[in-house]
Amino acid sequence: MGEALNDNSEISVGDDQQQTAAYVFDMLIGLSSAARQTDLTFLAYLLEMAGSEASRVAEGKNSKGKSAPSPRAKRAAR
C-alpha cells in the first residue's frame, strides 16, 4: 500500500464555508476523474456524491437543498 500523504502545509481556502466547499468540489472532480479512468467505479461514485454535496454548499444551500442562512444572518441571530 502507498505511503499516506502527510502534508502539514496550510491550504489557503478562506474561512468561508462556501469558498471551502467550492475548493473541495474542484479537488473532488479531479479525484473522481482519476478514479473513473482507472476503473475504480464505486470510489468514483462516492467522490461524485461528495462533490454533489460540496457543490450544494458552495451555492449556499444546506444538505437538503434549501438555502442556508447567510453568515450575516447567523451573526445577527446570536
From TrEMBL:
Residues 54-78 are annotated as: Disordered. It comes from the Bacteria. This is Uncharacterized protein. The lineage of its organism: Bacteria, Pseudomonadati, Pseudomonadota, Alphaproteobacteria, Hyphomicrobiales.
